[in-house]
Write a structure and sequence with these properties.
This protein is rod-shaped. It is built from 1 helix and no strands. The chain has one domain. By secondary structure, it is mostly helical.
Length: about 70
Amino acid sequence: MSDELMLALGRLEGKVDSLISRQTVLDEEMRKFDARLRSVEQSRSWLLGVAGVLGALASVFIQWASK
């Protein structure tokens, strides 16, 4: 029975090692995804800010031109 126990323990150890290595890969993929998403969010906020400023300037110009 000791041999069977050692074999089962070896299988468990192999599975745990596999899970740890897969988790490392997933962590790296998540970091890359987070960086890409952050870049998209920042560029979108910049674009919305520019659109807001242009809208305000257009409003001021239209009010000035209608006088």
